[in-house]
Amino acid sequence: MLEAVSLECMRGDRRLFADVGFSLAPGELLHVRGRNGSGKSSLLRMLCGLVLPESGEIKWNGLNIRRSDEYKHSLTYLGHLNGIKEELSGVENLRINCGLAGSDVGESAALDALARIGLAGREHLPVKVLSQGQRRRVMLARLLVASTPLWILDEPLAALDTDAIGLMRSLFEFHLENGGMLILTTHQELDIAAKTTHEIRFSS
Is the per-residue pLDDT at 80 higher than 90? Predict the structure, then answer.
């Protein structure tokens, strides 16, 4: 279980949010909503341990995430930037990114994931020749090979077409049905079936 207690975030002299708390159990979804600059991405980065809260605490199975070696191996985080190298191919990017996250993915598994996400025939092309939507699919292919229970996704649907959005919705629901946990931000309305859906909405 992931638990956030009284989180506060400052950006310079400006308080983005304060007293944010929630708990997330297997099968549950947390949707973080708000305008650009309201603190959504800052909250997600905080939950990943990339940003320290001004005050408050984040716990994984009762232990502060800063003291939990288990937490970093239980998490897949995809930011709003694609985080891929344009000179490399899709399969090379996928394998390298998974390796950096501590997961060894073979070439056949990487090729299968890229094909499933709609990049069949483009797996070995340099990413720089792909469209923005296709580049996004390269990043999202990580979810098809991820074995982590907690997914934290910042605007995962950006630049995707209708077919890709439908695929991601099915993938999210499969993850939740199998006891996974999902935290995401998106400006798009997306009805995702979950055991329980929580929402945090930032107003400014």
Answer: no
Q: Which two tokens stand for residue 106?
A: 């073979």
SS3 50: coil
Q: Encoding tokens for residue 115?
A: 């094909």
Q: In this structure, what token pair is assigned to residue 135?
A: 């580049």
Residues in Cβ contact with 126 at an 8 Å cutoff, skipping those fewer than 6 apart: 86, 87, 88, 89
CA distance 150 to 187: 21
pLDDT the model gives residue 158? 87
Residue whose structure tokens are 């191919």: 89
User: What's the pTM?
Assistant: 0.94
Strands (E) across the chain are located at 2-11, 14-24, 28-34, 55-60, 63-64, 75-78, 150-154, 181-185, 196-202
- Using CA atoms, how far apart are residues 185 and 10, in angstroms rounded to an integer? 20
Contacts of 200 (CB under 8 A, 6+ apart): 20, 22, 30, 31, 32, 33, 43
Q: What is the pLDDT of residues 97-134, one digit of tens each?
A: 998 888 889 999 999 999 999 999 999 999 999 999 99
- How would residue 204 be classed by pLDDT, with cut points 50, 70 and 90? low
- Which structure tokens are listed for 140? 């999202």
